[in-house]
Every structure is written in C-alpha cells, then in structure tokens.
C-alpha cells in the first residue's frame, strides 16, 4: 500500500511538473526542441532505424580528444543549446538530482521514442536534458581550456629546455 501511495505521489508530481514546464516554454522554444529530434527520416523508416543522426545526437556526443577541434565542437554545442532560448530559472525550484534523472532518461532513448511521449512530458524532459547538458558542456569547456593551456605550457617548457641545453652545449 505504501509503495502505491509513493508511486501515486511521484506520478502526480511528474504530471504537474510536466504541465508547469510546458506552459513556461515559448512556441519558438518548443519548435526548436522538436527540431533537435528531427532526423530527416520518415515515420515508416523510423520504425526500422535505431540510431539516426540528429541535432540531439550531436548534443549527446562526448568532447573527444583534447585539442582545439574538440573545444570548437563543444562551443558549437553550447551555442546550439543557447539558441533554444530556455527561460532563465526554468528549473530553479527543482533539485539537480531530479534533473539528472530526466537527463539520463532522455540520453538513453532514441529520438523516435522521445517523439512518442505526450508533448508536455517530451518538452519537459528535453528541456531538462538541455539545461543540464549546457552546464556539463560549460564545465567541459573549462576543463578543455585548462588542459590546452597546460599542454601549451608543457610544450613551451620543453622547447625552452631544449634551446637552453643546445646553448649550454655550444
């Protein structure tokens, strides 16, 4: 009985949370979120395809090898997320643990499965994913920048040491 009560409370919370978030999103933001799931594959083909390329899969991808190219890809992802124009403070009243749960749910579902959710649930989960993902990408950019600067410093030190050693030999 207790489990039923807890599940009911969670279901009620989610239903209200999805409805509240859905009303806060503008029509343009909803269209942008829908475009993330667009793979250019028709509904018939979608039933047979499993991992279609989409803007969404681009956002889910890891940064890759350390370098300027991976840094630029992360900047592109962050710009793409900012173009969504999610309202500031959209999830300010929601725990980051709850956002993490929705982020993980969205990350493992292919776009065709996400499109099957009711609009309020789909847009809320996508918005939560994008909000959390933008924070992750910002952190990744800082780490990449620090690593790039560290590598440049190490190379410069190696070059200076080599030059000093050659001068000393002469």
Major beta-sheet overview: none
Portion in helices: over 70%
Q: Poorly predicted ranges (pLDDT <50, ≥5 residues)?
A: 42-52
Strand content is under 5%
Strands, total number? 0
Helix/strand-derived category reads mainly alpha
What is the rounded distance between the termini? Answer: 86 Å
Structure description:
75% of the residues lie in helices and 0% in strands. It has 170 residues and is mainly alpha-helical. Helix 1 (2-24) packs across helix 8 (119-169), helix 5 runs antiparallel to helix 8 and helix 6 packs across helix 8. It is elongated. Mean pLDDT is 85; it is low at 42-52.
Question: Any descriptors?
Answer:
elongated, 8 helices, 170 residues, single chain
Layout of secondary structure:
Layout lengths: L1 H23 L2 H11 L5 H4 L8 H6 L7 H15 L13 H13 L2 H4 L4 H51 L1
Helix pairs in contact: 1-8, 5-8, 6-8
Structure in a nutshell:
The protein is mainly alpha-helical and 170 residues long. The chain is 75% helix and 0% strand.
């Amino acid at each position: 009985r207790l489990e039923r009560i807890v599940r009911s409370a969670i279901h009620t919370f989610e239903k209200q949370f999805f409805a509240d978030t859905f009303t806060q999103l503008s029509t343009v933001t909803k269209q942008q979120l829908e475009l993330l799931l667009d793979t250019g594959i028709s509904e018939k083909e979608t039933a047979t395809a499993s991992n279609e390329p989409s803007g969404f899969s681009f956002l889910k991808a890891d940064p890759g090898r350390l370098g300027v190219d991976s840094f630029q890809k992360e900047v592109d992802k962050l710009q793409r997320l900012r173009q969504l124009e999610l309202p500031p403070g959209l999830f300010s009243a929601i725990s980051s643990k709850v956002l993490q749960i929705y982020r993980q749910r969205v990350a493992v579902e292919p776009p065709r499965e996400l499109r099957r959710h009711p609009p309020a649930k789909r847009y809320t989960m996508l918005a939560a994913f994008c909000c959390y993902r933008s924070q992750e990408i910002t952190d990744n950019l800082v780490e990449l920048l620090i690593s790039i600067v560290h590598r440049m410093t190490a190379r410069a030190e190696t070059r200076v040491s080599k030059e000093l050693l050659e001068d000393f030999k002469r």
